[in-house]
Design brief:
This protein is an all-alpha fold. It contains 17 helices and no strands.
């Protein structure tokens, strides 16, 4: 069945509309549900404050809903759009716009639910009756920061819908798809991560209402750092949209798609993980106001290390975009280039998230005993370093895929072996990264409370991390077999 270009563009617009509101509705609904659950819990604890709690819940839910409204707007635009110059690039841009907005709204909607729910809980626990209005203000500020990824995704989506990209080639179409998924996926983690400091700040205000300004400052710093992965994803997305890469080959097109997916997936774990030290620092400031300097420093150091997987993903994305691999055959290089992006991007999810868990535990340890800041920070960095190893394995497999010579073939099996190696290592790195981070959380937490036995606790942490690492090593082994043996 032949499909004319007008029909293809219309089909793409419908698909983009479905992706936009389909993905976009998920996060907001989860965030609103969290807020409602916390409101019920708060009312159960103090029924006399039901009206204040209900009012706060509805305001918080309304803000969380805005992410889904952004997605709805893009979906409606796509449904009734009539492109002036229908091309295959136009079709790709419309699908990319929907995916970008839908995925980008996911994290913002969910993240906005955390401050809404925690504020409902805080209303009951507040010692100062005058602090409620300030908590609502802080909640709204925190939720506004959570909406940043959704807003950036909406900007990119509108550019994809209404801008003309000139070159009507298949390569440009694939590149535009990569840009849309890069921005959409890249916004998920930061939207969630930004909600954690905001929620803990509202709770901390119940204990330290006079420190509202200090708490808000730490919250904004923590939330700002968690936006870094989204900003890096947006940079890559814009480069994919507007840079002329020259080489018109299909293999290069797959490299550019791989770059977008690498950066998008690679930003998820770091975005979520960066929120944990921010939240723990705000909570700790409420418990230990004198430790603000130590808490802020620990938060920033831990959140900075969380960005490492995102930086690895960005490096691979830039290599895929700008390194000239010469006149390589389409088969099997399309799988090598796409797989290189997936191996690092997917494996970065667990490492970024796990590193954030360790950093959050460090901030908790500092707040409990500021005198142990040195040993706690050292243990955190050690635990975070081990957390990065699954992502480093993914980076290794990506480099092998990129720089190993792959003989030309007409068979499909060699290409599938390369792609399978990448998926094996990519997905195989997620669980170990998280598991290693959980093990690090235990070590960091108890070193802060029991410094005299820090050596024993650190050894136990490292042993546990090593065992968690074993499954990532299994993935490396199978990936290498797929690359060099079969």
């Amino acid at each position: 069945m032949d499909i004319d270009i007008q029909t293809l563009v219309k089909m793409a617009a419908y698909l983009g509309a479905g992706l936009s509101i389909g993905f976009g509705a998920i996060g907001a609904a989860l965030g609103e549900g969290y807020a409602a659950a916390k409101a019920d819990e708060a009312i159960s604890a103090n029924p006399e404050k039901a009206s204040e709690i209900t009012r706060n819940m509805l305001v918080g839910q309304a803000v969380a809903e805005s992410a889904a409204i952004f997605a709805l707007v893009i979906a409606v635009v796509l449904l009734f759009l009539s492109p002036q110059i229908p091309t295959i690039v136009t079709a790709a841009a419309l699908v990319a716009a929907g995916a970008c907005m839908g995925l980008g709204a996911f994290g913002s909607g969910l993240g906005s639910g955390f401050p809404a729910g925690r504020t409902c809980e805080a209303i009951v626990k507040a010692r100062d009756p005058n602090v409620q209005s300030r908590m609502t203000t802080v909640m709204l500020i925190g939720q506004a920061v959570c909406q940043t990824p959704a807003i950036l995704a909406m900007v990119v989506s509108l550019m994809l819908i209404f801008m003309s990209f000139g070159d009507p080639s298949l390569m440009k179409a694939v590149t535009i798809l990569g840009a849309g998924f890069c921005m959409g996926l890249g916004g998920i983690g930061s939207g969630i991560g930004a909600g954690l400091p905001a929620g803990e700040t509202c709770m901390a205000m119940t204990r330290q209402p006079k420190l509202t300004g200090n708490l808000t400052t730490v919250m904004l710093i923590g939330a700002a750092v968690s936006q870094t992965p989204t900003i890096l994803a947006m940079v890559i997305a814009l480069m994919l949209m507007f840079v002329n890469f020259g080489d018109p080959s299909t293999a290069k097109a797959m490299a550019l798609l791989g770059a977008g997916l690498c950066m998008g997936f690679g930003a998820i774990g770091s975005g979520v993980g960066s929120g944990y030290p921010g939240g723990a620092a705000c909570k700790g400031l409420g418990e230990q106001p004198a430790a603000q300097a130590s808490l802020t420093t620990t938060m920033l150091v831990g959140a900075a290390v969380c960005q490492t997987p995102t930086i690895f993903a960005m490096v691979v994305a830039l290599i895929l975009m700008f390194v000239n691999f010469g006149d390589v055959p389409l088969n099997p290089y399309w799988a090598a280039f796409l797989g290189a992006g997936l191996a690092t991007g997917l494996s970065a999810i667990g490492s970024g998230f796990g590193g954030g868990l360790a950093a959050g535990a460090a901030c908790e340890g500092v707040s409990r005993n500021p005198k142990n800041t040195g040993i706690v920070t050292t243990t955190m960095l050690l635990g975070q370093a081990v957390c990065q190893t699954p992502c480093i394995f993914g980076l290794l497999i990506s480099f092998v895929l990129l720089f190993m010579a792959h003989p030309e073939t007409t068979a499909l099996a060699p290409s599938m072996a390369l792609l399978a190696a990448a998926l094996c290592m990519g997905f195989g790195g997620i669980g170990p990264g998280l598991g290693i981070g959980i093990a690090a959380t235990g070590g960091v937490k108890w070193v802060g409370r029991n410094e005299e036995h820090s050596g024993l606790l650190i050894r136990m942490m490292l042993v546990g991390q090593a065992v968690s690492e074993s499954t990532a090593i299994y993935s490396v082994v199978i990936a290498l077999v797929l690359l060099f043996v079969v």
